[in-house]
Design brief:
The protein is α/β, with parallel strands linked by helices and 478 residues long. 33% of the residues lie in helices and 18% in strands. The protein has helices spanning 22-33, 44-55, 73-81, 98-103, 117-128, 134-149, 155-165, 171-178, 186-191, 194-201, 205-213, 225-234, 246-259, 281-290, 356-363, 379-385, and strands spanning 10-17, 60-67, 90-93, 223-224, 264-268, 274-278, 296-301, 308-310, 318-323, 328-329, 332-334, 341-352, 369-376, 394-396, 418-420, 442-444, 466-468. Strands 7, 9, 10, 12, 13, 14, 15, 16 and 17 form a 9-stranded parallel sheet that branches.
Length: 478
Amino acid sequence: MTVEFRHFDKKIWVCVSDPFDLSQIASAILANLDPEISLQNPTLQTFLSKIHENIKEKKFFLVLDDVWTDHGRDWEQLKASFQSDILGSKILVTTPKESVAEHMESSDVIHLDLLSEEICWLILAQKAFTGRNKDRRENLEDIGREIAKKCKGLPLAAKTLGVLLQDKLLREEWQNVLKSEIWKLDFAQEYIFTPLLLSYYDLPSAIRRCLLYCAIFPKNYEIGKDELVQHWMAQGYLNCNDNLGTELKGEDYFKCLATRSFFQDFTEDADGNVFYCKMHDMVHDFVQFFIKPEFVMEKKILSVGDGKLDLLSKKFRHLRLVIENCSSSPMSIYGTEKLRSLVAVSNVFNKITSEALPNLFSRSKHLRLLEFDSFELDVEEIARDIGNLIHLRYLSLKSCFGIKNLPEAVCELPNLQSLNLRRCHKLKKLPARIGKLINLRYLCTVGCRGLTYYPKGIRNLTSLMRLSNIIMRADHNC
């Protein structure tokens, strides 16, 4: 199949990945078509109708990358929105499963072969010998080609091993990689994780812990670098004698993982500073496989009846809740006494029930990180018992509407380091006693259009490292 891209009016690329989420896919497609569009409380049908408006009477080329779902009915609504009277539009789907191609009724199926040993060697060598002279390369090439054979034709394996070998200068070090016992592990062979294992065990133990924590993010999630470092800080992974060096240590850990290909798809500024990244699906699978069963859990709540979650027998440390298709979010969670992280995400702007927050705050006294994304929150319920979370270091209420005044009770969190209020559009006032948060290092109010001033107490935040969306007006009354 030959495609001339200049003939298309619209060119769209979207990573689908797993789990399948039609709303997120439609949202990503619309963002490609119209980056400036802004919708209030959008539904799936809103996304689909806007997509159709943007592509009707246009020739488009759509790439759906890394598709795993092979249930044809899941795609019917999306396919309908791409109906056009203009001939010549194309949809390209990439997938590791042939059944996906069958169920999507593909007109042409192209099977990609594994890379040859020679291509794997070239990829490995490009990474491994960066900045090295010709003599050093010739001294190690024979061992390197043997290592390249173990990549099994996978480009990520070749890239990962090449990065691993960058810092190894001696033949003995390369021989140790070639003869490592890890190659013999059954699960490593089955899951093709051996190159990642070699790179993983080459990390300092403190950085390994930071990598495994990334299991709390779903596949294809765009991870904010600063957000990730703040997560690590909240969990106590960046202990540093120099208080000002904590962020620098987090930056070093991130760079270490990035250079070893555990992160990819970087979004950078003109100076090369990284803002966002993603994890390759294989790396995500590796991290999920490697963590202890009780470390992280992701739970989807599809209906109110599904809202009671019992963790008593499992003792999870980190929990991610995804609330879907509910008019309200019951979130009656039992067994949260050991929970250290709770991330709750709503796909349809749910309202949290009146009994949910008090129950959560009274039971989850070991929480270090709490995040609500796109919920309707009751300020009085927040104020009632949030002071019980004395170990809380990270609080995020991004895109939560209904909050006009952040309650004073938030100022009773003595260890709070990060407060994220991004896109709380109705927020008008921060608590007058905000100066009591002496350990606060990050305050984000980006997108809080109703917030026009900071209280005077903000001058007492002597630990503050970053204040996003600075407002140049002082409150003369507080």
